[in-house]
Amino acid sequence: MSGGRTGLTALTVAVRLLLALSFAPLAGSVPAWATAPALLYVAVLMVRELRAIDWSDTADAVPAALTAIDGSKVRRREDHDVRWREPSRRRCREPAVAREGEP
Predict the structure, then answer these.
(1) Measured between alpha carbons, how far is 102 from 64 in angstroms, rounded to an integer?
(2) What pLDDT does residue 16 have?
(3) How far apart are CA 53 and CA 65, in angstroms?
(4) pLDDT tens digits for 26-54?
(5) Burial of 64 from C-beta contacts in 10 A (0-12 / 13-18 / 19+)
(6) What DSSP state is assigned to residue 98?
(7) What are the extents of the domains in the chain?
């Protein structure tokens, strides 16, 4: 069994995370249209790996298919984030109020 047993791995990961956090504002300043080509390239690389899956073995095929399908919905969830959504232009139906003299 291999892996980090001494805690040095956790310390290294923590230090690298703190270093990466300093670059977060820089990454946030890149517009979405500029990241699209890189995302498409990564998607092509990931789809290419689907050929290597043994689709006749359900133990391999089911998790791979679920991951591929669920991973495709990630961007859509961000697009429908409530915090950034513009107010809806549809008007909701207000309940009818009876006027005086009307049943």
Answers:
(1) 63
(2) 96
(3) 10
(4) 888 888 888 889 989 988 998 898 888 89
(5) middle
(6) P
(7) 8-83
Element (H, E) at 54: none
CB–CB of 61/55 below 8 Å?
A: yes
C-alpha of 45 from chain center:
18
Per-10-residue mean pLDDT of the chain, 103 residues long, equals: 79 94 87 88 88 90 86 52 50 58 61
pTM over 0.85: no
Q: What is the DSSP string of 10-52?
A: HHHHHHHHHHHHTTHHHHHTS-HHHHHHHHHHHHHHHHHGGGG
Tell the residue number behind the tokens 């591929």, with chain if given: 68
